[in-house]
Design brief:
cytoplasm, alpha/beta, eight-stranded parallel β-barrel, TIM Barrel, 9 helices
């Protein structure tokens, strides 16, 4: 199948150079990927480079640990929006999730969802499935859906494991009947990996090996 429009073409390495950022922007435009996903510092540059194309600018918030205060996440999201971000992928407060403080997790997410939706931006919430039990994955996905976020996302790609079909299936069931979709990210390296995630119910893929997945590498 055609994977191109599923792909958030991603470069989040701390050592990513300006030249590498420019290269992934060109790759995204040449291949009609959905977004270019970068760290907040690069948003303004990427937004300008993508002007006139159908590719969106996306960035991460509270990345990769999710342990910033809510106030900082909101400020980071606001700054990214002002710099031209169309889509934002925030990391939930994983420690509070593991503590069972679901109200605090929800409040943190809701604050960022609100600023994004007030500005008509897409917001995805990373729950870092590799650090959660199956029950916690289900509970986190339900919290994300309750806040009205556009996507619940598996992984940062910076922890112990990326997306798994099992986690995606749990998330899909948890958000069934809501407006929240599922994004799989981390460890998706081949067309087979991508197809497995889509078959499990993911409608967006966070990928750094995008060209390999579409057969161009």
């Amino acid at each position: 199948m055609e994977f191109n429009n599923y792909i958030d073409h991603t470069l989040l390495a701390p050592e990513a150079t300006e030249e590498q950022i420019e290269r992934i922007v060109k790759e995204a435009m040449d291949n009609n990927f959905h977004t270019v996903m970068i760290n907040p510092y690069w948003v303004e540059k990427v937004h300008l480079l993508l002007k006139g194309s159908s590719v969106k600018t996306a960035c991460v918030i509270g990345f990769p640990l999710g342990a910033n205060t809510t106030k900082i996440k909101v400020a980071e999201a606001t700054d990214a929006i002002e710099n031209g971000a169309d889509e934002l992928d925030m990391v939930m407060n994983i420690g509070e999730m593991k503590s069972g403080h679901l109200d605090k997790v929800e409040q943190d997410i809701q604050a960022v969802v609100d600023v994004c939706h007030q500005n008509k931006r897409v917001i995805k919430v990373i729950i870092e499935t590799c650090l959660l039990t199956d029950d916690e994955i289900e509970a986190a996905a339900k919290i994300v859906a309750k806040t009205g976020a556009d996507f619940v996302k598996t992984s940062t790609g910076f922890s112990t494991q990326g997306a798994t079909v099992h986690a995606v299936e749990i998330m899909v069931q948890a958000v069934k009947g809501t407006s929240t979709a599922v994004k799989a990210s981390g460890g998706i390296h081949t067309p087979e990996d991508a197809q497995a995630m889509i078959d499990a119910g993911a409608t967006r893929l966070g990928v750094s090996h995008s060209l390999a997945i579409i057969g161009k590498a």
